[in-house]
Predict the structure.
Amino acid sequence: MAPRKTAKPKVTKCPDCDGTGETTESVRVGARKGRLTDYRQNAMCITCWGSGEIPADD
Ligand SMILES: [Zn+2]
């Protein structure tokens, strides 16, 4: 019998999206000045893939 690991589902809140699963990216327009606009688009957080949680490594 293999010893069972008592693997707790360790997760921590994703720091990139603060647990929301989405990131808000500022959209830059104007190649010359690259200024920021007020317009922002939501994108799925690629750190946690939208789950808002990431596995916690020891
Ligand atoms: Zn995230």
Notes: The chain has one domain: 11-55. The mean pLDDT is 79. The pocket of zinc ion is lined by residues 14, 16-17, 21, 45, 47-48, 52 (CB under 6 Å).
